[in-house]
């Protein structure tokens, strides 16, 4: 079994907006967290694309990635992910090709096949384009071709983009992208930080069907893990109530802005809602360093993944950064 020391630790950031702070504050905190991730030795720092959500400020993902790249020096930075149905493949290739040209060997492109928003906003993003999820495999292949060396008869050259060989990942919360990642020989990241139900099946499907490629010679799996690590289990459970309130807001169609922790959630949710939040956070690791260390070791024992990519919805920004400091300390524990 793989050990925590042998497992890559990464961060997935959604640029959370607090209910008492500005969006500017959130965006500057993104950079503060990225700089901490670089200092602490995290493998990669990814930003997720979402739209029309008042509590998530990473909608212009490529722009925000440029801000992070310009103010860090070694950290691998990428998307987790770009929601491909919202974009023309050529535009994505040009954006990430530009970033990769400016910051060589540091840029990664994770691709998802969902819109990352509601139906009305999806139509506003596409402006009449009839993209469907069925086109996702073809769009992925198109992007890969734009990052590769140009072919003699190639009519469209991504400039910048061509010959940058930006690493491409496929992301998913079901079986579709697992199968496609296996067929194309690409690394695969499962969104178990919010949709853990099919994690085991997707990983097995990916590994069983993986075909070695110019991109990867063996399967590589990353899994999303929500975290709240604090000095004690009791403090972590208190801090986690901010995350619970955020998911509750998502389920009810209410604000997703981070709210301050509360002593008890009993008066805020129904038993059915509590069960739904618990299912959403089935992979969450909440507690002291010792508690979370045991929990991560159990996840490794069960899923044997190559990498954990952590999310965190702690209200206090200092404690949020401290969460990732504690996680890296866990990795270095013998």
TrEMBL record:
SUPFAM superfamilies: Bacterial luciferase-like
GO cellular component annotations of the record: cytosol
Domain of life: Bacteria
Family per record: To bacterial alkanal monooxygenase alpha and beta chains.
Entry GO MF terms: oxidoreductase activity, acting on paired donors, with incorporation or reduction of molecular oxygen
Protein source organism: Acinetobacter equi
Gene3D superfamilies, per database record: Luciferase-like domain
InterPro entries reported in the protein's UniProt record: Bact_Lucif_Oxidored (IPR050766), CmoO-like (IPR019949), Luciferase-like_dom (IPR011251), Luciferase-like_sf (IPR036661)
Protein name: Luciferase-like monooxygenase
Annotated transmembrane regions: none
Domain Luciferase-like: 21-246
Pfam families linked: Bac_luciferase
């Amino acid at each position: 079994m793989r050990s925590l020391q042998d497992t890559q630790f990464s961060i997935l950031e959604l640029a959370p907006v607090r209910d008492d702070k500005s969006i500017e504050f959130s965006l500057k905190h993104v950079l503060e967290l990225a700089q901490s991730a670089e200092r602490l030795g995290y493998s990669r720092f990814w930003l997720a694309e979402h739209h029309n959500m008042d509590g998530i400020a990473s909608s212009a993902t490529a722009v925000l990635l440029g801000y992070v790249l310009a103010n860090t020096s070694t950290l691998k930075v990428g998307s987790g992910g770009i929601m491909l149905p919202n974009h023309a493949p050529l535009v994505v290739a040009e954006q990430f090709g530009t970033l990769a040209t400016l910051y060589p060997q540091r840029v990664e492109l994770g691709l998802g096949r969902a819109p990352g928003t509601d139906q009305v906003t999806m139509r506003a993003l596409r402006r009449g384009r009839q993209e469907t999820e069925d086109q996702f495999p073809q769009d992925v292949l198109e992007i890969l071709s734009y990052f590769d060396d140009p072919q003699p008869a190639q009519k469209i050259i991504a400039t910048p983009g061509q010959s940058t060989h930006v690493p491409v990942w496929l992301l998913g919360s079901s079986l579709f992208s697992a199968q496609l990642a296996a067929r194309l020989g690409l690394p695969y990241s499962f969104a178990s930080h919010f949709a853990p139900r099919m994690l085991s099946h997707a990983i097995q499907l990916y590994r069983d069907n993986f075909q070695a490629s110019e991109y990867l010679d063996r399967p590589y799996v990353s899994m999303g893990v929500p975290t709240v690590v604090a000095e004690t289990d009791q403090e972590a459970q208190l801090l986690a109530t901010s995350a619970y309130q955020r998911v509750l807001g998502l389920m009810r169609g209410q604000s997703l802005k981070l709210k301050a922790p509360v002593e008890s959630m009993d008066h805020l949710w129904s038993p059915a809602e509590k069960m739904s939040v618990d299912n959403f956070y089935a992979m969450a690791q909440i507690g002291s360093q010792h508690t979370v260390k045991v929990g991560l070791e159990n996840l490794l024992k069960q899923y044997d993944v190559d990498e954990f990519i952590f999310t965190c919805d702690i209200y206090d920004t200092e404690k949020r950064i401290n969460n990732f400091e504690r996680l890296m300390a866990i990795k270095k524990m013998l």
